[in-house]
Amino acid sequence: MPSGSRGTVLVTGVGRSRSIGAGLAKGLAEDGWDLVLSHWRPYDDRLGYAQGAHDTEDVAEVCRAAGSQVRVVEADLASEDAPGELVTAAADTGPLRGLVLSHTESVDSSILDTTLESWERHFAVNARAAWLLIKAYAERLPTAETAEVTGRVVALTSDHTAHNLPYGASKGALDRIVIAAAVELGPRGLRANVINPGPVDTGWMTPEIHRLAREQTPAGRLGTPEDTAGLVRFLMSDAGGWITGQLLYSNGGFRTS
Q1: Under a CB-based contact definition with an 8 Å cutoff, are residues 189 and 150 in contact?
Q2: Which of 90, 115, 208, 255 lies 20 to 30 Å (CA to CA) from residue 81?
């Protein structure tokens, strides 16, 4: 499909080549979307997972080779101004048709050792930024009621709770924000859904976690970024326009095992 024929999608959280965000970007590029990819290098450096010197640009080059126009923007989504600035940057590149929110703050801690600073940063990045991104995007949608699809939001969530308290709590808030957007903005043509991809090893799993997660997945293997991308691509397609306000599990049966 020719570049630009479908419009632009903003994809957050494309900081490392080995990430769900990178898989989402590549899949959307193959479907003919132009892309704005956001990342925040200090977060990836802080986690210490394997990465190259120019991972986001490397992902962008793969997407460009598929025919997409791609812009890379570094943004700290803990800043209250960053979401609006990011949506403006995305809209400036072409008709903004959707948001795919795969950014996150995720640092393990529990009830007794979570710090107030960590709690506030998790909620700023995982919940507040999602709300502000959706709000800034929704302000660009047509105001008249319509049965047509005018925009799409897809966000990634998680089941983590115990010993990952601020992450799990803020992801729970994210779920409610996205579903609220589906209801409140549905008459204006917005479709909004949440995906829980289950355990996907993007560099954070120990061998023991990898083994346990695989054993608890009825499909017999762990998920991959491409598995999540397949569902996102469907939701962003014409065929996915009837699905909205859902928390979808794309996890090989992990939740039911």
Answers
A1: yes
A2: 115
Structure tokens belonging to residue 8: 């632009």
CA 93 to chain centre: 20
Report if residue 181 sits inside a domain.
yes
Q: Whole-angstrom Cα distance, residue 209 to residue 25?
A: 27
Question: Which residue has 């990178």 as its token pair?
Answer: 22
Helix axes 82-91, 129-138, angle to 10 degrees: 40
CATH number for the domain spanning 69: value is: 3.40.50.720
Helix (H) or strand (E) run with residue 100 in it: strand 96-101
Query: Which residue range(s) make up the domain with 31?
Result: 8-256
Contact 40, 15 (CB under 8 A): yes
The answer to whether residue 1 sits within a structural domain is no
Residue pair 135/178 in contact by the 8 Å Cβ criterion: no
Counting the structural domains of the chain, the total is 1
Query: Could you report the per-residue pLDDT of 75-117, keeping only the tens digit for each?
Result: 999 999 999 999 999 999 999 999 999 999 999 999 999 999 9
In the DSSP assignment, the letter for residue 252 is: T
pLDDT, tens digit (0-9, with 9 covering 90-100), for 120-170: 999 999 999 999 999 999 999 999 999 999 999 999 999 888 999 999 999
Please tell me whether the overall predicted TM-score, pTM, comes out greater than 0.90 for this model.
Answer: yes
Please count the CA atoms within 13 angstroms of the CA of 245 that sit on its side-chain side: 9
Q: How many CA atoms lie within 13 A of 189 on its CB side?
A: 18
Is 2 among the domain residues?
Answer: no
- Residue written as token pair 């400036």: 92
**What whole-number distance in Å separates Cα of residue 40 and Cα of residue 91?**
20
Tell me how crowded residue 136 is: count the other CB atoms within 10 A of its CB. 19
Q: Is residue 3 part of a domain?
A: no
